[in-house]
Amino acid sequence: MKPELDSKSAHLLETELALWKPPAGPAVTDSLGMLRAIPLFRDLKDAELTKVSKLLHQREYAADEVVFREGQTGAGMYIIQQGAVDIVLRLADGSEQCVVSLKDRQFFGELALLESTPRTATCVVRKPSVLLGLFQPDLEQLLERNAQLGARVVWNLARMTGLRLRELSDLMRARAEATPPAKAPGAA
């Protein structure tokens, strides 16, 4: 039985869930189709997807293995080719809370392609999984070798980041409108 979340933790959970959406449509078995399901690569042609696929690093993970920990410097994004992971936050009281579970064709950690900042959550594998990693040096290599293709990927990343920020802003606005306004100090 999971403990009840305090209001701050519940707010964090709502925020994280708003930012993670599973891909629409049926499961795709071919690798180019799987990549096309990822918003960063959705509008790329088959030849371009093939170039991107050559930059990906495949790794198998066992259940309960940690992909990265909260606070570690991020170096890239991950695509779940097969399996499932949990994104877990460490709360102020030291406990951990799963904020979202991700599965086949979903991705996470994409902001680490743009900057090497500490991860804001821990990623734990739920069941044996195959993940594909795209790391900063891979994206830089793509930009150097094929500037047009690299720019399209970065442009898609910028669009996706903007979309997620708008969704977060909408969620925060809805939450603020649902919360009664605070009384000003000294008000009767």
CATH topology: Jelly Rolls
Structural class: alpha+beta
> Could you tell me the strand content as a percent range?
25-35%
Note the gap between the termini.
43 Å
Helix content: 25-40%
The oligomeric status of these chains comes to: single chain
| Tertiary shape | globular
Radius of gyration: 19 Å
Please describe the biggest sheet, giving its number of strands, its sense, and whether it closes into a barrel: 6 strands, antiparallel
Q: What is the class in the CATH system? A: Mainly Beta
- The number of helical elements comes to 5
- The CATH architecture can be named as Sandwich
Order of helices and strands: HHHEEEEEEHH
Task: Write up this protein.
The protein has 188 residues and is α+β, with helices and mostly antiparallel strands. It has one domain: Jelly Rolls (Sandwich). It has 5 helices and 6 strands, in the order H-H-H-E-E-E-E-E-E-H-H. The protein has helices spanning 7-19, 31-36, 46-53, 136-145, 147-178, and strands at 57-61, 66-68, 76-90, 96-103, 107-108, 122-135. Strands 1, 2, 3, 4, 5 and 6 form a 6-stranded antiparallel β-sheet that branches. A hairpin with a 5-residue loop joins strand 3 and strand 4 (96-103). Helix 1 (7-19) runs antiparallel to helix 5 (147-178). The longest helix has 32 residues, at 147-178. It starts with 6 loop residues before the first helix and ends in a 10-residue tail after the last helix. Mean pLDDT is 83; it is low at 12-29.
